[in-house]
Amino acid sequence: MDNFNWFLLISRWIHILSAITAVGGAAYVRFALLPAATSTLNDDVHERLREAIRLRWMKILHACIALLLITGGLNFWILAVPPKIHPLPYHPIFGVKLLAAIAVFWIAIGLSSRSQAFAKMHASRKKWLNILLTLAAAIVLISGILSQVRAHDPGMHSAAASTIQ
Ligand code: HEM
């Protein structure tokens, strides 16, 4: 227990809670709210409901994105900056995760924005929610791979030491 890192535990906890909240919200919209509202509400009522939800959800979504970026950066700094770890293969895999996460944030912000710049995205919400959820599932898998890669990494110091021996 000498190396028990409370800071890392709290950071990882907030990271995973933020991911659950943001991705869970998107899954609920895709599989329950959107189909139910489309089949039961007329366009006017649906639009008013969407706006009322948007005003509330935007704040939570922005907080989740900020927390994911902050805690993700902290996790990376604590766990994955050399010499704690060999850059290969961890860093390229992390790069793929980061790009996928940026794409997820962009879709989530686009879907919950009122800007005309996202009009095409708004016209096919179901498709973009499917893309967002597929990317999010891939990100959780990649995160697990990163954890395993790190667990099997001897660390640069010990690797250098074993080369010298
Ligand atoms: C949609 C966005 C994201 C999701 C769903 C997500 C999910 C996760 C999950 C589930 C873990 C725990 C993996 C495990 O221990 O098995 C994790 C770890 C981690 N995440 Fe994220 N994350 C996201 C965004 C980010 C971002 C933006 C960053 C960087 C700025 C980041 C950096 C990290 C790091 C460094 C770890 C530790 C990986 C390791 O164990 O070596 N994540 N993430």
Arithmetic mean pLDDT: 93
- Ligands in the structure? protoporphyrin IX containing FE
Tally of contiguous helical segments: 6
Shape descriptor reads elongated
Rg (CA only):
20 Å
Estimate what percentage of residues fall within beta strands.
Answer: under 5%
Give the strand tally: 0
Structural class: mainly alpha
The rounded distance between the terminal residues' Cα atoms is 29 Å
What is the helix fraction of residues, given as a range? Answer: over 70%
Largest sheet: none
Number of domains: 1
Name the poorly predicted regions.
158-165
N-to-C order of helices and strands = HHHHHH
Report on this model:
The chain has 165 residues and is an all-alpha fold. The protein has one domain. Helix content is 84%, strand content 0%. It has 6 helices and no strands. Helix 1 runs antiparallel to helix 2, helix 1 runs antiparallel to helix 5 and helix 2 packs antiparallel against helix 3. The longest helix has 38 residues. The chain is elongated. The two termini are 29 Å apart. The C terminus is likely disordered. Bound molecules: protoporphyrin IX containing FE. Protoporphyrin IX containing FE (HEM) binds next to helix 1, helix 2, helix 3 and helix 5.
Brief sketch in words of this structure:
With 165 residues, the protein is an all-alpha fold. The chain is built from six helices and no strands.
